[in-house]
Specification:
Blueprint (H helix, E strand, L loop, with lengths): L1 H23 L6 H22 L5 H29 L3 H9 L7 H37 L4 H5 L2 H15 L5 H11 L2 H14 L6 H25 L4 H11 L6 H9 L3 H27 L1
Helix pairs in contact: 1-5, 1-9, 1-13, 2-5, 2-7, 2-8, 2-9, 3-4, 3-5, 3-10, 4-5, 5-11, 10-11, 10-13, 12-13
Length: 292
Amino acid sequence: MFSELVAIVVPVYLCVGLGFAWRRAGRPYDTALITELLMGVGAPALVFSSLTGLTVGGELVVRVAAGALLALAASAVLGVGLLRLLGLPAHTFLGPLVFMNAGNMGLPLCLFAFGEEGLALGTTFFATAALTHFTAGQWIWAGRLSAGEVLRTPLAWSALAAAVVLALGLPVPRWLARTTELVGSFTIPLMQFTLGVSLCGLSVAGMPRALFLSALRIGMGLGVGVGLAWLLGLEGVARGVFILDCAMPVAVFNYLLAERYRRSPEEVAGLVMVSTLLAFGTIPLILAWLLG
C-alpha cells in the first residue's frame, strides 16, 4: 500500500515542486497567459476528450456532476453559517471554503489513483466546479451574477458538446478525438507546474486563521463528500474520485478573484498556500483509506 501511495502522490508533488523551484530561481513565467491557455484551450480539450472516451454509463457522469453541484451548495450553506459564527466576511472567505482545487491537484490524483475512468469522472467534477466558479463564484466575490460569463467560457461549450455526443451516441471522428486528446494531454502537467509557480509567489497573512480555515475547508469537504457519496449511491471508482475531489484544498483561482475584486487578497493567498501544504499531509491519508 505504501509503495502504491508513493506512486500516486510523489509525481504530483514533484511537478508542483518543479514549478515552485522554477519561480524561486527567478525564471520567467507568464502565469496569466498560461492560465488563459489552460482554461481556454487545454481544459476544454481535456473535458471533451475524457467525457467522449468514457466507458462508463452516462447516468454515472450525470450523478457525479449533480453530486459536485450538491457538494458546492452544501459547502456554501455550511460556510455561510460558520463564517457568521466566526464574524468573518463571506465576500472574502466563502469562496475559499466552497471552491476546491479539483483541477491542478484533483485531476492528476484522480488519474494516478483511479486510472482513465478516474480521470474522466474527475474531469466531470472539475468542469462542473469550474463552471459554477465562473458564475456563482463571481457573485460571491463581486456581489453580482453574470450568466454571460458562462457563455463566454470555452469549458462550457466543450462540456455541452461532449454531453450531446454522449446523449445521442454520436461517433467522434478520429481526427477530432486525437486532436482533443493531444491538446488536452498538456493540461494536467502544466496545471501542476503552474500551481507550484503560483505558490512561490504567495505569502501567508494571518497564520492562525489561515490554518483554521484551511483545515475547515479540507475537513468539511471530506465530510460533505462522504455523506453525498452515500446519498447518491456512488461506489468504486466514482466514490473514490468524488470524495477525493471534495477534500481538495483551496483553489488558486480564488486568489485571482480576490485580487480582481480587492477582497483581502493577502488573506486569501494565505489560505491557498496553507491549505495546499496541509493537503500534502492529508491526501495520502485519504487515499490510503479510499484505496484500502
